[in-house]
């Protein structure tokens, strides 16, 4: 057997060789925490757990060092995307994005670094995200281990935000908050940008290309690869409409952002419709970026549609 024989090819995300080697094709670059020269946002990395290895990157805006007396700021928990198998909280694309968002929205942020498949298959990312949330919540009385959270975060104004697989995480963590509670935390809302959901039955325009062809097959295969013990694409983690507890979603408002040329677009709309019928008492809004593809706002953050999206998200957080 040659070292180059492939077991799985999920380009452009990753390849897995038959000898067990995993080659990530993107999302491996690292940006160190810093004080951002453009925005004055400060960041630092914090270890939440040694075993399993869970960490996060914390961000505070310039206002925390310039305004006196200090008023506490909304707390944003961010979950990065990458199909549960690539990227990290220290990836330059997410580091730069959060520097800008924290500055514009004037929030404290915690960007969660969860373990990735295939080395750590799902549900590891869900377990790690919940452990990170419990760690964050341990600061709600002002006596936690991390001073930035004790001093600057308002635990009565908490938001979850994620893109793609991170949107899936943000939803599932908000559902867990609704079903189990998270002591000391008042979750106001969640932002789901191009959320990574799927299902067996086509919705919207999915019965036609590209979702009906290679696009949909890729999504289904990637899900099974990252979660080998899943019940399938109708697993409630992946298809929220199949979750009998959906009406328990633990926040009062939801912003779903979809992109016209994203294969996941119809899932975002479907999520909104399903949520409205679930008995959930909150308000859900969907905005669609015309002419744009999946995570366009990360790839080209200065384009007009990305700037408009950012304004909408900043308003939602405030």
UniProtKB/TrEMBL annotation:
Domain Alpha/beta hydrolase fold-3 residues, every copy: 76-297
Domain of life: Eukaryota
InterPro entries named in the record: AB_hydrolase_3, AB_hydrolase_fold, Carboxylest/Gibb_receptor
Range of residues in the leader sequence: none
Gene Ontology MF terms in the entry: hydrolase activity
Family: Belongs to the 'GDXG' lipolytic enzyme family.
Protein name: Alpha/beta hydrolase fold-3 domain-containing protein
Source organism (scientific name): Prunus dulcis (Almond)
């Amino acid at each position: 057997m040659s070292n180059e024989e492939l077991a799985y090819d999920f380009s452009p995300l990753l390849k897995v060789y038959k000898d067990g080697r995993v080659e990530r094709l993107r999302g491996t670059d690292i940006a160190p925490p810093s004080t951002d020269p453009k925005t004055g946002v400060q960041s630092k990395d914090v270890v939440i757990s040694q075993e399993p290895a869970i960490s996060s990157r914390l961000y505070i805006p310039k206002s925390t060092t310039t305004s006196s007396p200090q008023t506490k700021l909304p707390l944003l928990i961010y979950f990065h995307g990458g199909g549960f198998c690539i990227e990290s909280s220290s990836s330059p694309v997410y580091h730069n994005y959060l520097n800008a968002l924290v500055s514009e929205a004037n929030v404290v942020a915690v960007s969660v670094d969860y373990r990735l498949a295939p080395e750590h298959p799902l549900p590891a990312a869900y377990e790690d995200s919940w452990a990170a949330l419990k760690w964050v919540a341990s600061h709600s009385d002002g006596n936690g281990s991390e001073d930035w959270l004790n001093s600057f975060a308002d635990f009565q104004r908490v938001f979850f935000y994620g893109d793609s697989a991170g949107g899936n995480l943000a939803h599932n963590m908000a559902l867990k908050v609704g079903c189990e509670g998270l002591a000391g935390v008042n979750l106001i809302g969640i932002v789901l940008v191009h959320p990574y959901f799927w299902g067996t039955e086509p919705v919207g325009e999915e019965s036609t290309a590209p979702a009906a062809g290679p696009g949909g097959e890729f999504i289904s295969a990637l899900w099974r690869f990252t979660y080998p013990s899943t019940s399938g694409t109708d697993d409630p983690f992946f298809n929220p409409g199949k979750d009998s507890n959906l009406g328990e979603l633990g926040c009062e408002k939801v912003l779903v952002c979809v992109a016209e040329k994203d294969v996941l677009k119809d899932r975002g709309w479907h999520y909104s419709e399903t949520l409205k019928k679930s008995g959930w008492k909150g308000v859900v809004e969907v905005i669609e970026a015309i002419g744009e593809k999946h995570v366009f706002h990360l790839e080209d953050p200065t384009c007009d549609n990305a700037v408009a999206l950012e304004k909408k998200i900043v308003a939602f957080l405030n």
